[in-house]
Amino acid sequence: MRVRRGGTAAVIVLLLGSSLLASQAAHAAGLDMFTIAQCRAVDTRNSSVQAIPANGSSSFKIVGTLGNQGGQSACGIPVGAKAVFLNVLAISVSAAGYLSVYPYGGAIPVTSTLNFAAKQTIANGAMISLCDPTVTSCPSDLTVKMGPAAAYVVIDVTGYAQ
Length: 162
Prior knowledge:
Blueprint: E1 3-5, E2 8-9, H1 17-28, E3 33-43, E4 57-60, E5 83-91, E6 97-103, E7 114-116, E8 122-129, E9 142-146, E10 152-161
Parallel strand pairs: 1-3
Antiparallel strand pairs: 1-2, 3-10, 4-9, 5-8, 5-10, 6-7, 6-9
C-alpha cells in the first residue's frame, strides 16, 4: 500500500476491518492514499440543512469549494480524487437508527455507515467513494441517507485516494 503525506512515506493503522478492506481495494485499483489535516467539511448544526430528517437524505460537496455546509470552505481534496477517508458523526439523534454515506448518484448501500441509539452522539470512520463524473453529473460528491431517525450530521475528512 502506498501512503503519502507531504511527499513522504507515512504509516496509517486502520482499526476498522471495512476500512482495511477498502484500503486494500484502493491499492489493488492502483490508487495512492494521502492524509490531510482533519477538515470539517459538513456540520449540519451550522448550515442551512440542519438535522437530516428520518428517512431523508442530503448531498454534500467534498472536492473544491464546499459552500454553506456548516464546515470549512474547502478541505483541499483535489479534483480527480476517487474516495475519501471520513469520520462521520450523528449528533442529537431523535431515536435509535442508522445512516448511510455513499457516492452522489450511486445506489443506497445495503449496509449502514453508522448506527446509533436515541440521544446518542457517536462517530465512525469510513472510506467512501466519490461521485464519478465519467458516469453521471456530480453537483455533489456524497449523499447521507438517514434511516428511521433524524440527526445532525458532521463529516470530517482525514484523507483521500487518487
